[in-house]
# Entry
Amino acid sequence: MNKAKKQVTTALLSILLLFSMAIPTFANHQESKPVLTKKQSPSYVDLVDQKATSQTKSLFAYLESVRGNSILFGHQHATTEGSTISVNDGTESEVNKAVGDFPAVYGWDTLSLEGKEKPGKWEGTQAENREALINVMRIAYEKGGVLNLSAHMPNFVTGGSFYDTTGNVVTHILPGGNKNQEFNEYLDMIANFANNLKDNQGNAIPVVFRPFHEQNGSWFWWGAAFTTPAQYKEIYRYTVEYLRDKKQVRNFLYAFSPGSPFNNDEAKYLTTYPGDEYVDILGFDTYNNGEGTELWLKQVVEDAKLISKIADSKGKVAAFTEFGYSNMKVSGNPDTEWFTRLLNALKSDPDAKRMAYMLTWANFSAEGSFTPFRDHPTYGNHELLDDFIAYYNDSYTGFNREVSGAYDIEVKTIKEDGIIHTASPTDKATIKNATTTIRVRAVDSSVSKVAYSVEGSDKEYTLKFNAKENYYMADWQPKASQNGKTVQITVKAYLGNKVVYEEPISVNVEARDVVAKTYDFDSSVAGMTSEGTYPESISMELSHDKKTLKNGTVRLAVNIPDASQTWQELKLKMENLELTNVNKLKYDVYLPIEGNESATIQGVATVPPNSSEKYGMGQSKRLADLEKVKIGNDVYGKYTAEIDLSTAEKLEAATELGLSIVTSNLNYQGPIFVDHVQLLNDYKEPVLDPLVVDEFEVYNGSNAKLDEKYTVASQGDPINLSLDQNHKYSGDYGLKYEYNLGGSCYGGVTKILGGVDWSEQNTLQFWYTPDGNDQKLVIQVKANDVSFEAYPTLASDEPQLIQIPFNTFVVAPWDTSHIGEKLDAVNAKKVQEFSIYVNAKELGTTLSSVLYFDDIRVITK
# Structure
């Protein structure tokens, strides 16, 4: 295990983009005395946090100076997990037992703060878990190590884990969402940890914080299938601003780390990038199972090269934020030189080698280790131990002893220009409420006015600054004519007459109860007339009342003498109405309760001249169950009629509506009040058959709407979907599926089904046109958290209707924890996702081709 002394010149390097500092000096593994690093006069760094502590600024500068001279090795749970260590208190490490030194980079997760991972405990309080994590981190810091904190946050909607992808979580935790407070409390926990993480002199200990990682995949609730790019950017920005600005966390560097590969496409890598103002470290995550390693290594080098260049252009640190040999066995691995091959591949490219560090995952078990072990009581030495020792001995790798002066470099931060961004709504968001709050934040930016406009009008509406929320805010109410459509909102910020910020935001409006017209009768009851009563023994007089309620209202002076009657109808009519885009009627009725507690009331509507077709039937309520309202000295019940008119024929052409108050068993003489009549547009979700995956008709020819429902596999080759009218089985449209096999040798798309029940069906059926190229078509169904696959042929090019029995599906070969499971009635009761992949049959295949699909459904045979 003797490692040759690593020699690094002490000449000063000229670091790209404002970095100018000494090369780190690496200590000899055989010597215990530290080697000091030369310093030069203060330099400047461009950080997310201009007020970062001096140690945090130094860490950033140090990591930048490492690039190209060494790559630091990191390990998740380095001193709190391992099958060959005897304690989990931060003093022992499986890596140290294997090679004689600790990692240079130590990783933990916010799960430890929750007590779900060591050193936290399930039964521990939040304070106890916080102190436990602080203690092991402080030990690593005192060794000179670099600390990382990732964040596998729980599902704030369902209470499930980070793997629970249901509930559209990001929508609910962004500002204005009903789970924003719960998310804030989680961030409070992180901030409380960060602000208490201090060394023995009381200085805050720096941490690389890496939230919302691998977001371009779809295995976490913040993944691409469940979060738009704009939503991801905003939740990342919100997290940074909350910790930095609200909670005054000054010891975090912020890392951005989507999953590889990126196919040498900068735009793909930056799809969810929240902006230079919010990221200090650019990273990427990727794993390999030892098979197809050569292709994987090529991808890693391409990705590292790409990210290194992007980091240089932005003044950021580049890092290999997470990597690993997944499913690495104690023995019998297909690749026993995996670590050195990976290192040599990175070293082979002058840009790829410029990763500041590379962090592998935790050793939660001997059979699931990510670093090889030594002297295991059952297994002895791991099969890859010699290779890992060679990796360690390589002069380019940096372990704990070689980290020197990471927190002593004197640097200053550059003053930021500031940023303005729209926090809500986000681009391509779906608006579900009739009122949406527009929120704009100006961080370190001077503005004199913030305003928004809506497509179709040049009128601007001013947002007011809310000091408590620290947002410029205004409420926007879409028009009834905009419900069910895509609407563009343009937000602008001004400094004087100059526009300093402009952002167009497209939103899908699918709102409940968008108001087309409201009648409050404050000044008159014009347009409201009496149409009599049923039976005629009931009397009613209509008038305008300006005194009884707060404002004006319709007063009905009634005499209903016979409590034995079961249909007592007070008929009203509203005239001169514009009913285009109206599909719902709503109005309030006030009537006394005392003496009539058992009587019932309901509202009904008609569309004249057809008075026989009544809408709103079956919504009667007992007067005793109504909301109580004090009017004068009497207690009235408030009944709100909500009447669906979506099935009413000729409604848009009508100019009148009949509305009736129908009581049963009421005996009353006196006033009844009608107020706040609203004509509404209520968005109706398309009624989808749970047994139909897709018929491609619901998108109405819109490829944009199609794209919203399907997520392209982030680590695969490019896939392009579009609707096609020439290749179909039925209806107006089929699916055109263009695939481009290249560096990843596979590509695919996924549609979220949300847990539909297929337990009474037994066969998947669809129409498709193969392309005759004989690649591997994979039809994947995720059911009950198990991924099942079937493999129809692509050898022919004949259109065909295919039926695949459930019992012929097999568990995906990579889903090793579920091998042997069947797509039976138990698993089919909860079908979560449907995917179509095309895999290359041979490595290195490059091919672009087209498939067509239609009428994908499940049946019973």
